[in-house]
Structure formats: C-alpha cells, structure tokens
TrEMBL record:
Family: Belongs to the calcium channel alpha-1 subunit (TC 1.A.1.11) family. Two pore calcium channel subfamily.
Catalytic activity field: Na(+)(in) = Na(+)(out); Ca(2+)(in) = Ca(2+)(out)
Keywords: Calcium, Calcium channel, Calcium transport, Endosome, Glycoprotein, Ion channel, Ion transport, Lysosome, Membrane, Repeat, Transmembrane, Transmembrane helix, Transport, Voltage-gated channel
Sequence ranges assigned to domain Ion transport in this UniProt record: 55-278, 398-640
Protein name (record): Two pore channel protein 2
Biological processes, Gene Ontology terms: calcium-mediated signaling; endocytosis involved in viral entry into host cell
Gene Ontology molecular-function annotations: calcium channel activity; intracellularly phosphatidylinositol-3,5-bisphosphate-gated monatomic cation channel activity; ligand-gated sodium channel activity; voltage-gated channel activity
Subcellular location: Late endosome membrane; Lysosome membrane
Length: 692
C-alpha cells in the first residue's frame, strides 16, 4: 500500500544520506530487507567486530612457530618463546574465517549478482578465503608440522580489502609504477656499470697485501654488486674504500663519483618523478569522494520526491520539509551537523524544498568542524574582575613559559654537574629543591587560570588539559617522594631506603617537567602551524599506514616460512627470525642499513647458496626505502603545502577551533558535479528505479 511504499522511500533516503556522510557507494540493493541488513552491517558493532577479527588474525604471526617473540631480542638472555599447542591458533583462525565468510557473503548479496562479477576485490576476497581454508585443512592433517603455510602470506589481504581508501591508494601506486620503473632501471644501469668498472679497477694482482679491496669487496660479480648496492645506502661508507684509499688516494674518485651520481642525483630524481606523478592523487580521490556525497544526497531527494503525499509538479520535483525531518530523526550522523540542518530547516519559510535547496542544506557536512569555547565566568566584584583580567591575559601564559624554561635550564645545569659522578657521590638535594619551588608554581598557575577562565573553558583547550594533567601527576609524585623520603636537605641520598628508588622518582618527575615544556608550542604561531599540520597528516594518512602494515607483515612472514633458510641450508629459521619490528628498523634507521649489510655477509659466509637471501633483502629495500618512502614523501609534501597555504591565509580566531579533514583541504579547488552527471549516474543504478 501507499504507507508501505512511503516507509520504503523514507528508509531508502536514510541509507542514501548515511552513504553520503561516509562517502560510500550507493550501488546496493534498496528493498526493505536489504536496507535493514545494510544498516546492521555498517553499524559500529559489526564494523568493530570485523576490525577486531582482522587485528587478531594478523597478530597470530607473533605467537605462531617459528616466531621468537620475547621481551628481549638478545639470544643470551631471552627465555624460549611460547609455542602454542597444535589446534589453538588454528581454532582462532577458523573463527576468523567464519567472520570473513559472513562478511563476504553479506557484501556480495547487498551489491547483487551482476555487480559481484564486476567487483574484482570481492572475487579476490573469496579466492583468498578458499586458498586459506584449504591450507588450514592441510595444516591440521599434518598435525601442524608442515613447514610452508601459504595462508600466512595472504592474511594482510583481509586488512587491505576492508579499506576503500587503501584500495584507492594502491590503485594510484599501481599507476605510478611505470614511471618509477624507468628510474629504477636507470639506477640498475648505474649500479651495473660501476660494478664492471670496480672489477676492472680492483682486479687481483700478484701482491696479496695490495689485494685487500679485491678480497673483501670485489672478489666476484655478486660480491661487487652487493658492495656497491650497500654503498648506495651509505651503510658501508667509508669502509668499502679504505683498503683502496690506503693504497692510492686517487681511488677515492671512483667511490665519490658513484655516491654523487647514485645518491644525490638518481635517488633524488626518483623522489621528484614520484612526486610529479603522485601529486594529483589526493585531489582526484577527494573529487571522487565529493561526487559520491552529492550523488547520495541527490538519490535521497529523488526517492523522497516519490512519496505519495508529495504534490506532483510537472516542471520540477519537490520534497516536503516534514518528510525530511522524519528522515533526519532516523539518520545516524554527527549531532552538530544534524542540529545545524534542523535549524536551517526551521528557518526556511517554505514547506517544500527543491533539489538545489535540498542539496544546500546538506552542505553543512562539508563545513569545518568549529568548536567554540565556553564563556568565561562573570564576576560581580571589581577586585575579582581585575584578577580575572590579569590571570586570563596572554602575558600570564608567557610568564609561565619563562618559568618553565628556567626550570629546564636549572635541571640541565644539575645534570651536567652530576654527569660524571657515581650514584653514591650524587647529592639529590639540588634537584629536590628545584622541584619544591617550580611544581607549586605550576599548581598555582593552573588554579589561577581556572579562576580566570572557569573550569569548563579551561578544559576546553587541549593545551590546558595537557598542562593540567602533567601538573597533577608532578604534584602526586612530589608528595609521594616527600612521604617516603622526607623533605630535601644537603646530602639527601636515601635511594637505598626501601624498595622505591628515589633517583628513579626524581628522574621521572624531571622527565615530565621537560615534557611539560611542550606547552610553548601553541604560543609560537608557525611552530603550532607545523605541529598541527603534522598531527592532521597522521590522522588523515591512515591508508598509507595500512598499506605499510600490509607490506611489512607479508615480507616479515616470508623468512618464517622456511623458504630462504631452506635454500641457504642454515638450520632452523628461529635463529633468523625477521619480524615486523626488524623490517621497520630496516625501513627508517641507519642501523637498518647496517643490518642489511650484516645479514648478507652472515648468509654469504655460511654457504654460497645463501646468495638467494639477497633477493629478499634487496626486495625489501626497493619496496620500502626506494619506492615506499618516496611515495610517502610525495604525499606528505602535497598535504603539507596545501594545508600550509590555507592556514597561513586564514584569520585566527581565539575562541574558535577549526578541525579539518583531508576532504576539506581541497574544498576550494574541487568541481561540483553537474545536474546531468548526477542524474545519469542515478539512472545507471542497478537496483533503483526512478520515476523520472
């Protein structure tokens, strides 16, 4: 009947608006049962369960044999790693597989059979589950003694397929690969040519004393390639050229030319090319997200205009304000946005909304999240008003920063004076006395600010919450120190009294004081701009972090699969466990480069067949340091430059706090989709039949 149809239209509009809010595709089933299932699937509970399942199945690698997860990595001190019994981790895996089967079944049903065959990600999802479950059965049939487990390598796919932003990022990376490949090929040519030059230049001679360069670094082609590849990372510089340099200083020209051409030119050229190819990625992605949002809002308008009580108009469809209010009551959205839309709706004098008016109402979703701070208390007493003015003035905050700086300087002076002293020779009186002066000041400063601003306004500023929390912690630690050891006095060294070390407590207090000095950041405009921009980048670059986790997890599992060590014939893989932490070290630190070189030398010294292990380490170096880091730098530059330009030109408002997302960064350069584009896309919807 008409009432059932109206309920269906209302529910369709609710779902389409929620799709627009979350930038989801609207190409799914729109019948009553499917809409109920769709909302349940995207509820916080279901998505939390799915995220938890993905986290659990990825975390299994830390406890499965041959993982060596222990408190310390030093083989001399660590205890044997816990080896779970056969069937324990497999049972957890089975539960995870059941959740994934339910997930892919619901997704496949909701998009429909025709759309399913067009969705390569869903087909890959099903194939991954089939292969993983088959491998799981094989594992149980061998009583968990098999050396190769394919499903471990496939596990990161579950994280990848669950994020639409990660899929977009991966697609963009894939489109950038041809340009990157050309530079990597040029890098390989550079490496090969200099390898041949090195083998000719440092050939073996009759004098063994003069052949150290040949013996250690350039004995054959694989060794020569390895030495120069590691030199490209600067890990073995200047060790690699010391024997030749000792023989003749002119040999240094060869190594200088190789490093300058490889590091300064080719590696930076790779960064420039990747940035040039990748800089439009975010803009295209956000443009696509904007289109999805506008399409979802327009779809909601079209279904609401089909309500039976809506007056028909031959010229233009309309939606009644009452129907929209009914929809807004059911939609799950930010309360700020909902209240703003309801206010605009009440201020509207008309009873019906056109498509343009309807779309304009929901532009509230695109606006900055503005947080206004509560007002300060109004005191009647003239004396209190003067105190409020004095302690609420920015200069009072500047005075607090000066005091904090004086505290840091005094701590540094004491630490420098006690640097060479034995623990028994140290006198903690000075540090204790310093804390007795500064910590009460911090407490007094906090209380006076609360008096001037009011508690609600004081807590509305993140910097004040940070400052107040550290002040309370410092006060508690100081009281605990006095309660255990008494007040500071000359020769105050009671660290051996009881179980609690005074030196540890004093050191903790002073570390917090140093940390508290970060309060100066909001008072320095450009430093605050840089820090807030970086924090926003951390929040908005989750897709890249996710792909890094996928890559790191996959490559960390490979050495645990007995593949490399079986080829190298060096015994159990537990002695050569390459975990995610090790790979992150390889990615970000100089010590990682040293580990790369040391790992290769160790493997080469065991057996010549161990040269197969080079493929693994070189692959990780190419993927992480050469390609991935440059991609991240490119995206970081684009984000930073865009946000820097926008924030520098925006007037600062003291009582208003702006919270921007990556979708809002490019708002001024995005193109609004036209009426024709939206209607054409809606008419292509596989499950929605429009009346016009």
């Amino acid at each position: 009947g008409n009432e059932a149809d109206n309920d269906l239209y209302i529910n369709q509009a609710v779902v389409f608006i929620e799709d627009a809010i979350q930038y989801r595709s609207i190409n799914h089933r729109v019948d009553s049962k499917s809409l109920w299932l769709y909302r349940r699937y995207y509820s916080r509970t279901c998505q939390w369960i799915l995220s938890l399942t993905i986290t659990i199945i990825l975390a299994l690698a830390f406890i499965e044999e041959p993982s060596s997860l222990t408190v310390t990595s030093d083989v001399r001190y660590r205890l044997p790693a816990w080896n779970p019994p056969c069937g324990l981790t497999e049972s957890v895996e089975l539960l995870c597989f059941l959740v994934f089967v339910a997930d892919v079944s619901v997704k496949s049903y909701l998009i429909g059979w025709k759309e399913f065959w067009k969705n390569k990600w869903l087909m890959a999802y099903i194939l991954t589950l089939i292969v993983s479950f088959t491998d799981w059965i094989v594992s149980l049939s061998f009583f968990c003694t098999e050396s190769l487990r394919i499903r471990r390598i496939l596990r990161p796919f579950f994280l990848l397929q669950n994020s639409s932003m990660m899929k977009k990022t991966l697609k963009s990376i894939n489109s950038t690969l041809p340009e990157m490949a050309s530079v990597v090929l040029l890098l390989a040519v550079h490496l090969s040519l200099f390898t041949m030059f090195a083998m000719l230049l440092f050939a073996r001679t009759k004098d063994n004393q003069q052949d150290k360069e040949w013996m250690v670094y350039f004995r054959n082609l694989p060794d020569s390639l390895t030495s120069l590849l590691v030199l490209l990372t600067t890990a073995n510089n200047p060790d690699v050229m010391i024997p030749a340099y000792s023989k003749n200083r002119a040999y240094s020209i060869f190594f200088i030319l190789f490093t300058v051409l490889g590091n300064l030119f080719l590696m930076n050229l790779l960064t420039a090319i990747i940035y040039n190819q990748f800089r439009g990625y975010l803009l295209k992605s956000v443009q696509s997200s904007l289109f999805r949002r506008r399409l979802g809002i327009r779809a909601a308008f079209e279904v609401l205009s089909s309500l039976k009580e809506t007056p028909t108009n031959a010229q233009q469809p309309y939606v009644s304000t009452g129907a929209l209010q009914q929809v807004l009551q059911k939609v799950e959205m930010d309360s700020r946005c909902k209240q703003a839309i309801m206010r605009s709706l009440k201020m509207c004098s008309c009873d019906q909304l056109s498509a343009a008016q309807f779309q304009k109402l929901f532009e509230e979703l695109d606006k900055d999240a503005i947080k206004q701070h509560p007002p300060s208390p109004e005191y009647q007493s003239h004396f209190m008003q003067k105190l409020q003015f004095a302690f609420g003035h920015p200069y009072f905050g500047y005075l607090g920063n000066v005091v904090a700086l004086a505290n840091i300087i005094s701590i540094c002076v004491v630490l420098v004076m006690d640097a060479d002293k034995q623990p028994s020779e140290r006198d903690d009186f000075f540090l204790g006395a310093i804390n007795c002066f500064f910590i009460p000041y911090y407490l007094l400063e906090m209380l006076l600010k609360i008096l001037a601003m009011g508690l609600r306004r004081y807590l509305s500023y993140p910097s004040n919450r940070f400052d107040g929390l550290l002040t309370v912690i410092l006060l508690i630690l100081e009281i605990a120190t006095f309660a255990v050891y008494g007040f500071p006095h000359p020769g105050w060294r009671p660290e051996f009294m009881g179980l609690l070390s005074l030196w540890d407590m004093v050191r903790l207090v002073n570390m917090l004081i140093v940390f508290r000095f970060l309060r100066i950041i909001p008072n320095m405009k450009f430093m605050a701009l840089v820090v807030t921009t970086l924090l926003d980048l951390v929040k908005n670059l989750r897709a890249f972090a996710g792909i890094l986790v996928v890559t790191c997890n996959s490559l960390a599992v490979l050495p645990m699969q007995h593949l490399i060590m079986a080829l190298c014939s060096v015994g159990p893989t537990s002695s050569w466990n390459i975990g995610p932490t090790t790979l992150m070290t390889l990615l970000i630190t100089f010590q990682g480069k040293m580990f790369f070189h040391g790992a290769l030398l160790h493997l080469l010294s065991v057996n010549l067949i161990c040269r197969w292990a080079k493929i693994y380490f070189v692959a990780w170096w190419l993927i992480s340091s050469v390609i991935w880091v440059n991609l991240f730098v490119a995206l970081l530059l684009e984000n930073f430059i865009h946000k820097w330009d926008r924030r520098c030109h925006r007037a600062s408002l003291s009582d208003i706090e702006y919270q921007r997302t990556v979708e809002l960064m490019f708002r001024d350069v995005l193109e609004e989709p036209t009426e024709e584009e939206l209607m054409e896309k809606l008419h292509q919807h596989p499950h929605l039949q429009l009346c016009r």
